[in-house]
User: Fold this.
Amino acid sequence: MVPDRPVFLSNRDGHGAWVNTRALELAGVTAATPDPPHGRIERDPDGSPLGMLQETAMDLVADHIPPHDAPTLERAVLDAQAQYHAWGITGWNDAMVDGPFLAAYRAVAGRGGLTARVVLSLRSADLEGFGGPDGIAAIRDSVAADAAAASASAPGPARLSSGSVKFFVDGILESRTGAMLEPYLEPDGRPTDDVGFLNFEPAELRRLSIELDARGLDLHYHAIGDRAVREALDAIEAVRGANGPRDRRPHIAHIQVIHPDDVPRFAALDTVANAQPLWAVHEPQMDELTIPILGPERTTWQYPFGSLLRAGARLAFGSDWTVSTADPFPQIEVAVRRVWPEHRDAEPFLPSERLTLDEALRAATVGSAYVNRQDEAGWLGLGRLADLAVLDHHIDAPDAPPIGDTKVVATIVGGELVHEAPALEM
Assistant:
């Protein structure tokens, strides 16, 4: 019996979804439906859809889901903000903003409800809907004008800006949608001819990057596979050649696999390596799904945080929440130990890529503030922003508990208390 209700379940990384038969029927997806560009419908041998949709194939069903209304999206912004403040976070970069969420952020900020400092990265997939490069530049200027008007009654740096554009250069390794320079392996080690795929032709990625940069917009790239990282670096190099020098702050997020030849290019191109350290551990997804299809050599190219710093790169930390927790302290612990906090006696993952605590703290504070153009934030000092988190202990003390167990007592933005934890038991 076919269920009456359609079901759409996104996986945790947002690059695939499980759907039931009813959902496929309502969307008209059959064995005759071709794979869309940059997507894949997983199928039985006879071509019938299995119910697993990869990348843009998700849209075949997702486009039929009724959108959330404006009050729901605005409530989501406020709920996320409260959770972030509870984790000690004073600002963030929202990496995948479409038109409705842009409106929600602006509505919340317009009512004075935004207590964090937020940078919006508008999705390049929605470039046409935003009005192209000129339209995105106009949105940036309009948001900045709103912030300037608001600062007349509440002086201080703007709480909302939207001068960044996000490109999804590829997908992920586990589904083989991440773009690789050399083919994936079968789980048993046999070779394949599958190198994943790029979501942009290289010339198109370079063209769009040049046009957006020419309008003063910052470039933000999702790149998982080593080919995707290289194409992002090539686009940034093309931007520098075409548009000349300026204070640009491109960053490449996730950087799971970087070919060793490309590690020094981050510093040479003044490109920030935006790392999600919580993923750099031995756990089932890594050990059972990723390492077998990469093989021994490419496995050692994953999450090379230490190598990037040694090569002079600037490092910033992000969480990719809700893929994984945005709590910064487990992330910092993994960057320092390369061990999952829930299994602290496990084998470290590529321990030569560990960071010192000072290096990890700098990436999580100064590095992230730099990406977001919040140069007065990230560290304490005379004339700096009064954005800070008060912790329940000194994390560098000899007798301190594990870093990942750190709790936030209070969070302050611009000298204003925005979160206060319940009294801690002594």
In short: The chain has three domains: 8-62, 88-371, 388-420. The chain has a mean pLDDT of 94. The longest strand covers residues 160-168.
